[in-house]
Amino acid sequence: MSKKTVFITGGAGFIGLHVIPLLLEKDYQIRIFDNMARGDRARVNELIATGDVELVEQDVRYGGGVHNAMKGATHVIHFATVSINKSIADPYESIDINMVGNNNVFAAAADHGVERLVFASSASVYGDPKRLPMHEDDELNPLTPYCISKRAGEDLLGFYQRTKGLSWNALRFFNVYGPGQKIEAYYTSVINTFIQRIRAGQAPTIDGKGEQSMDFIHVTDLARSVVCALESEGDNLPINIGTGIDTSIATLARILIDALGSDVEPIFVPRDVLVSRRAADITRAREVLGWEPTITVEEGMTALVKAALEQ
CA torsion, points 134, 135, 138, 141, in degrees to nearest 10? Predict the structure, then answer.
């Protein structure tokens, strides 16, 4: 039998480059589809040298290119996207890449009859949650063009499921972090800012009481969830991918101070702060994917600090 081929958009990015080695271990062929605007070319070249990875350097905005490049693929992972920050600064590009790109990939996957499509959705589709932990059936209130496009992407998948039988899973990623992430990344800017200040002997500054929280999920665990979603019996569902634990900014600062062996104390700046908290209900991920996280935020952040010190 010939190997199954995974077509992975945005595969040269942070998460894609953690997923691809797991797919290679399972004997898939990999076809990366990436415009390389932010891709790691050196790492992609290393993967191509294995003989089981190829790169198609094109853009998801061009439907014909997506359709042609997907020929022969049995599975699709759709990661290509414009970030939250950039979507606010430039809504036009965000809608073009995130909305038109989504439709181009989904339509091609439906036309080619792929076995499964996995879509990188986002916890941001919930907006500010009314309760914790956040469940997939909770009300959605996406606030930015990026978040709106993720919700619309899930709806589009439902359309292609109903009309053409497309099998899909949409993973609502919470706050992913880990080695190889660009330091300006939306969710990790606070981590990197804290690390830089603590290393310089300066105290991290925190607005308010530091009660704002995120559900930090390590990229190694998250990559496993993608492979599980590609192969699961259950399909056609949005699925939260997080730890189920909300880590406050004050707690994060303490974890990083301890990991760096520093004796600085955080400085809390009194000001009104909209306290938003996030934690995923991961019951569905356990039941449908047979997946759960294995790396605690303390372990993951300590490893991240160790790696930063070694650079």
Answer: 50
